[in-house]
Structure formats: C-alpha cells, structure tokens
C-alpha cells in the first residue's frame, strides 16, 4: 500500500513538472521570438515605404542617388525613423573573448555547488570601471530562466555613487565549443546602459543547461571542462567639442581702435588693448609700415586671439574712412595659424601706404588712423563644457 501511494505521488509530481516545463518553454519561445518579430515588422514597413518612394521617384524623375540621400529621408515618417532596432545576433567566433574568461574544471560540480544560484567572477577592470561576470548554471529564476545558463555583466556601482552617470557598454557573451573550435557568441547591436540602480545586464536564456551535460555538443571537453567569456566595450562620450556661435549670439561684435599721431609712429608694430567679444578676448595689431610682403608699401592689419586660442573666425577688418564712410574693408574667414608668433587673421597688404597719405581718402584725419573689427562668427574647441 505504501509503495503504491508513493508511486502515485511521483506520477502527479512528474505531470506537474512536465506542465511547468511546457509553460516555461512556451514563455521563453515568445521572449526569444519577440525581437525577431519586431525586426521583421520594421523591415516590412520600410519595404512598403520604398514602393511609395518608387512612384515618387518616377514622377519627379530625380536621379537615384540624389533621391536616396535627400527625398527618402523626408518620405519616411518621423516616428518610424526613430524607432529603435535592437537586433540580436548569435554567431560563431574564432577570436577569443577580450575582456574576461572563466574556465570551470567541471560544469557538473559547479551546477551541484551553486544549484539555482550563481557564480560571480572576481572583479576585472574595463574602461575605467570594475566589472564582474555572473553565471547562473541553471538559470536566473528572477529573470524567468530555468534550465538555461544565464549570463550577466555587472558594473561595480560603488564607484558610481560619487560620480553618478550612465555607462554605455556593448556586451558580448561567449562559450567555447570544442567541436567547432570556436566561441558561440551572443551579441546585440545596441550598447546597454548601466547606472547606479541598474548595475547589471545579461542574457537569461544563453544556452540550455542540458548541452553542458552532453560531451557530443562540444561545450564540455577534456572531462567536464567548459569556458565562458565576455567582451565589454565601454563607449566613451566625446571629450572635446566645437561650438560655433553666430553673429546674433555675439555681444559687442565691433571694436574700434584709434591710433593718434600716426605720422610719428616709428615702431614696427602696435597692438591694441584686449577687448572682449563673444566670450573671447582679442587684440588688433597694426604694422604702420607693413609686414612681410606688405613691408614698405602697405599697412598690415590683423585680428589676434589674446589668449592665442585656436579658433575658426569670420570677421570684417576695416580701416575707417573718417570723411565719407567709404571704409577699406576685408573679410577674414578660417582657422587661425596657431604658431607661436602667428599674426592671427589678417592681411599683409591691407591698404597701400599711398592711400593713407592721400588726404582725400579720409583714412588719416588729424593725424589719426581708425581701425575696426566686426566679429561675425567664430567657433572654438572646448574640453571644459559639459554636454547635458
Ligand atoms: C577596482 O577594484 C580595485 C580593487 O578592489 C580597486 O582598487 C579600484 O579602485 C577599483 N576601481 C574602480 C574604478 O572602481
Ligand atoms: C548597486 O546596485 C544594487 C543592485 O541594483 C543595489 O541594490 C545597490 O543599492 C546599488 N548600490 C548603491 C550604492 O546604490
Ligand atoms: C601659418 O604661418 C606660417 C608662418 O607664418 C605660414 O608659413 C603658413 O602658411 C601659415 N599657415 C596658414 C594656414 O596660414
């Protein structure tokens, strides 16, 4: 009687287990299928739009390249364009993992030891952060995995307390296969976001646990050994950027400098006081008797960055006509020549000396010369600005 009772119990138990596994299997198939389904769906919509664009193309008879680069962008509805494509790929790779590897001498023993728990690697350093590699040999139940090996990357979030920020990392998981002599690889196209409160990301359903108990699959070899690996590539955000401010953003774009007793100026060059425009400091530099090819025949005029900054500048330099406002004006446009003794932006032959002597031109009045700069736009590289 007692044995019979026991038998019946076992039967109920196995029926229950069977049903449970069926449920888990279906649930997991749905989970896995979902990203692919999304991908297919998006492809289909794109294809549909391509047909619409095709007729548009014929109607307007635009050349294909031109059409692809400009019209197609506007033809795709905004919402679709920004839809995220998170593609998943599993593939075989010959090259070993770059970040970290764990070899278990016996997968079966690991399974016995940690049961439904996990093994956590010792910390390793990637991209300025400490990471650990987590392996659940029989699945992470919290993530709905059972009977699967689950793999996770975890960032040491203690360092993110003092400097709370998002760390984006591309993660790949590997397991070595002796039969193919390659690494079975799981990777996604999107980098994953780690932060203080979400320090962990991984794949619950990496491989069925059962493949690690069958030597013919190649995942265990030389007895019961197996090797798991991980690649972590921390995406760095840019450190330097370029800001281009336009005229409308520039305060005090015009600076005028009057040089008196012009005829008695004997020094090679004269530099103005520095003035501020658009958050940068500048000076004007005049060579009354010319510089370089202008020497002896022209006045040379330059705009310089007071702090010797390397920047892109677009500005108008002028020698003012003090009678009829018929100014001598020249445009400078480009990156500074940042060599030590550079003259910045300007012209060796800005205005002929003969024109300065010609009183009718109004450039020198009461023995005074007026030079002017109007800064239209400039950009500079800056590593101190924060982005967000
Ligand atoms: C990584 O771990 C080591 C050893 O525990 C520690 O000395 C180091 O400061 C850690 N680095 C970071 C960036 O957390
Ligand atoms: C680090 O992440 C874990 C897991 O989410 C969390 O429990 C813990 O509070 C985090 N640490 C800090 C210092 O916030
Ligand atoms: C920079 O200055 C040097 C020396 O004056 C000159 O040879 C060179 O052509 C200049 N480069 C530019 C881009 O102006």
From TrEMBL:
Query: Which Pfam families does the UniProt entry name for this protein?
Result: MATH_2
Q: Which InterPro entries match?
A: MATH/TRAF_dom, TRAF-like
- Listed CDD domains: MATH (cd00121)
Q: Name one GO molecular function term.
A: hydrolase activity
Looking at the record, the residues that make up the MATH domain are 97-232, 252-375
> Does the keyword Transmembrane helix feature in the UniProt annotation?
yes
Q: Keywords, A to Z?
A: Hydrolase, Membrane, Transmembrane, Transmembrane helix
Membrane spanning segments where?
Answer: 12-33
Q: What is this protein called?
A: Ubiquitin C-terminal hydrolase 12
Organism ancestry: Eukaryota, Viridiplantae, Streptophyta, Embryophyta, Tracheophyta
């Amino acid at each position: 009687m007692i044995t019979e009772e026991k038998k019946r119990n076992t039967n109920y138990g196995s029926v229950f287990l069977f049903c449970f596994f069926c449920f888990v299997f279906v649930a997991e198939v749905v989970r896995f299928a979902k990203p692919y389904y999304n991908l297919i769906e998006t492809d289909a919509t794109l294809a549909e739009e391509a047909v619409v664009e095709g007729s548009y193309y014929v109607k307007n008879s635009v050349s294909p390249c031109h059409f692809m680069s400009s019209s197609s962008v506007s033809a795709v509805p905004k919402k679709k364009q920004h839809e995220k494509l998170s593609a998943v790929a599993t593939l075989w790779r010959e090259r070993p993992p770059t970040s970290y590897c764990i070899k278990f001498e016996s997968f079966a023993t690991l399974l016995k030891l940690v049961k439904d728990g996990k093994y956590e690697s010792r910390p390793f350093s990637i991209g300025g952060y400490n990471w650990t590699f987590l392996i659940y040999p029989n699945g992470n139940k919290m993530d709905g995995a059972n009977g699967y090996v689950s793999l996770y990357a975890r960032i040491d979030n203690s360092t993110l307390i003092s400097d709370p920020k998002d760390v984006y990392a591309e993660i790949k998981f590997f397991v070595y296969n002796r039969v193919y002599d390659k690494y079975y690889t799981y990777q996604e196209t999107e980098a994953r976001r780690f932060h203080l409160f979400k320090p962990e990301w991984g794949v619950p359903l990496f491989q069925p646990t059962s493949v690690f108990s069958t030597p013919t699959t190649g995942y265990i070899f030389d007895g019961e050994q197996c090797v798991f690996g991980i690649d972590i590539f921390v995406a760095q955000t840019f450190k330097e950027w370029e800001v281009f401010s336009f005229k409308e953003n520039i305060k005090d774009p015009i600076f005028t400098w009057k040089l008196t007793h012009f005829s008695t100026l004997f020094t090679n060059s004269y530099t103005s006081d520095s003035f501020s425009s658009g958050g940068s400091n500048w000076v004007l530099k005049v060579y009354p008797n010319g510089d370089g090819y202008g020497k002896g025949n022209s006045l040379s005029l330059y705009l310089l960055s007071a702090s010797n900054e390397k920047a892109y500048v677009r500005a108008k330099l002028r020698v003012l006509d003090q009678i009829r406002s018929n100014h001598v004006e020249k445009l400078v446009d480009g990156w500074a020549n940042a060599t030590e003794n550079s003259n910045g932006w300007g012209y060796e032959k800005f205005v002929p000396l003969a024109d300065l002597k010609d009183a009718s031109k109004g450039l020198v009045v009461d023995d005074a010369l007026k030079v002017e700069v109007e800064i239209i736009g400039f950009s500079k590289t800056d590593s101190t600005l924060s982005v967000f």
